[in-house]
Structures are given as C-alpha cells and as structure tokens.
Design a protein that fits this description.
The chain is of the alpha+beta class and 242 residues long. It has ten helices and four strands, in the order ββαββααααααααα. It folds into two domains: 86 residues, Chitinase A, domain 3; 151 residues, Serine Threonine Protein Phosphatase 5, Tetratricopeptide repeat. It is elongated. InterPro entries: FKBP6/shu (IPR042282), PPIase_dom_sf (IPR046357), PPIase_FKBP_dom (IPR001179), TPR-like_helical_dom_sf (IPR011990), TPR_rpt (IPR019734).
C-alpha cells in the first residue's frame, strides 16, 4: 500500500481533472485495487518514499481509446504530478492472512515475525492519522499470529519482543479510545513479559488515573519514576495525580 499526493492534468499541465492535494491525510491506497491506471501503477513501482515525479501517460497507459467521458476525451495523453509520502508492502501480509491457520503454522517463524511487524507498521500509520479503531484492529491482527510457542529460546525471545511492542501499542491506543480498562489489561500483559518496563508502568498508571483508582495509579507511576526519574511525562502525570 502507498500514500500518494497526486494531481492529474490534460493539455499542457493546465487543465486539472483529478487531485487529492487538498487532503491533509491522504488515505493508504493499494496498487491494482485503488490505483488501477496501468501507467501510474508502473510509475509508482519505480519510486521510493519521499520521491516526487512527473509522468506523461499515453492513452494505452491511461484511459485508452474510449477515454473517460466527460472529463477525459478519447485517445488522450494525460499528465500526472505524484509524490510518494509512504510505502508499506502489504502484499505479503494479505497473502499470509488468506492462508488457513494450519498453513500459517507451517511457515517459518521469520516470515510470521515479518508479517506481524508490517501489520504493526500499518497500525502505527493509522495511529498517527488519529484513526485509532483501525490502528487497534491492525495491532490485534498482528498479535493473532504470534500465538505459537517455540522450544528454541532465541525464537521464543523474538516472539516475546514482537508481542511486547504490540501490548504497549494496544495499551496506548485504548487510552486514546477512552477504554482505560482495556488499556490497563494490555499494560499488565506487557508487565508480565517485562516487569521493569517503564512505558508499561506509565500506561497502567495513566489508565488507573483515568478510572480514578488513585492509589493504584500512584503505585504504577512511582515504579515508573524509579526507573526513569527524569521522564517529563511520568513526572507530569504524578503532578496531575497529586
């Protein structure tokens, strides 16, 4: 999937026929699904994140002999101004989630971890766009494939590292969704994996403060402060509590 800013023109860059340039947060689009113009798809595949380009698409790479009435006449060459804001490769993830659970289980852990990391990236992308519900679903989807346990210590440690990040992400996302009970649950799951995790202690403290469980909140926040005495966020939360 990619996020692009685009403007399509006819003539000599003087007649705008489509654009998403006014959108503050362009949505994530999939090549071949949301972006179906052959020339544009080929062009985007040659670009990297942060790159801007101008494309001149002849009719066979654009709207063909029929055009697209009323805005695009038959046999028209079109021009596109494109900027790639972000690129996340979702193809591997989509293919993975189409498999049955049995098939997923037979894949090497390396592949599973890669899919989970990409799903988490998607979650982060939507989180920063303030689309917390979608972010939560992405984090949970990543978590859903990390249920396997391994006899190898190294592999188990990799699974746990991936899960810990997702627990912390979910805890924060549920705080944003004003579901403090769920935020506390995921914060505590993170603490089960890493009892000295200042971030997890801080999230649990925030959740308890939101639920007006003040002494519980104080306990979590003081423990977080012991680990990171100069963390401004933790100290501010303790002031709020006081």
């Amino acid at each position: 999937g990619c996020t692009v800013k685009y403007s399509g023109y006819l003539g000599n860059w003087n007649k705008l026929f489509c654009s998403n340039g006014n959108s503050k947060y362009p949505r994530l689009m999939k090549l071949g699904k949301d972006i179906t113009l052959c020339g544009l798809e080929i062009g985007l595949l040659s670009m990297t994140k942060g790159e801007a380009a101008l494309f001149i698409l002849t009719p066979e790479y654009a709207y063909g002999q029929q055009g697209c009435p009323p805005s695009i006449p038959p046999n028209t060459t079109v021009l596109f101004k494109v900027e790639v804001l972000d690129f996340i490769d979702s193809e591997e993830c989509d293919a993975f989630f189409e498999l049955t659970y049995e098939q997923q289980d037979t894949l090497p852990l390396e592949k599973v971890l890669k899919v989970a990391a990409t799903e988490r990236e998607f979650g982060n992308y939507f989180f920063y766009k303030q689309r917390f519900k979608v972010a939560k679903d992405r984090y949970k989807r990543a978590l859903s494939i990390l249920g396997r346990s391994s006899s190898s210590k190294t592999e188990q440690s990799q699974i746990n590292t991936s899960k810990l990040l997702l627990f912390l992400n979910l805890s924060l996302t549920y705080l944003k969704l004003e579901r403090a009970d769920r935020a506390l649950k995921y914060g505590e799951l993170a603490l089960e994996m890493d009892q000295g995790n200042a971030k997890a202690l801080f999230r649990c403290g925030q959740a308890c403060l939101y639920m007006r469980e003040y002494s519980k909140s104080q306990d979590f926040l003081v423990r977080a402060q012991c680990i990171q005495p100069f963390n401004r966020d933790i100290n501010n939360e303790l002031k709020k509590l006081a």
